[in-house]
Amino acid sequence: MSVEMRVKVLRAGAVVPSYQTEGAAGMDLSACPTDGAITIARGAIVLVPTGISIAVPRGHEGQVRPRSGLASRHGITLVNSPGTIDCDYRGEVMVPVVNHGKEDFVVEMGMRIAQLVIAPVVRAEVVPVEELDVTLRGAGGFGSTGVRARAGA
Question: What is the pTM (predicted TM-score) of this model?
């Protein structure tokens, strides 16, 4: 299944997103800094511009996710992962990158910094109620189901 996503190049050097393999779920987003390379200090968060705006198809969202190679080799990931690009947003795609690595990291023009997955969205009909149904888990939250696999599960 495929849908059409329109892409507008906003400035020279911007790269139109593309899939790197036939089976890739995400297409790469590339950096397009306005003033040369961007250095991200250890622990710092920087909004990296891509130089493009997109029209996500109606009924879908764009999920911006980290690239596994940058994360595993350099500690470079995204602050709000996955980030969402709504179908009615038309501004420049900006990627909030954080450096969890041990060294400063330099983002250069054209560097693939994130991936974009186009996914269908289901909108909920919100129904206020007095009570919710009872479940075995109940209100158990963070960590309530443990970290070890259960025998026979």
Answer: 0.87
Q: Write the CB contacts of 3 (distance below 8 Å, at least 6 apart in sequence).
A: 57, 60, 118
Name every residue whose Cβ is closer than 8 Å to that of residue 104 and which is 6 or more positions away in sequence: 39, 40, 41, 42
Instruction: Decide: 62 and 54 in contact? Cβ < 8 Å.
Output: yes
Handedness of CA 20, 26, 73, 98 (dihedral sign): positive
Please list the alpha-helical segments (H only) found in the chain. Answer: 68-74
Amino acid identity at 80: N
Average model confidence (pLDDT) for the chain?
94
Q: Are 94 and 10 in contact (CB under 8 A)?
A: no
Q: What does the chain come to in residues?
A: 153
What does the alpha-carbon distance between residue 127 and residue 124 come to, in Å, rounded to a whole number?
9
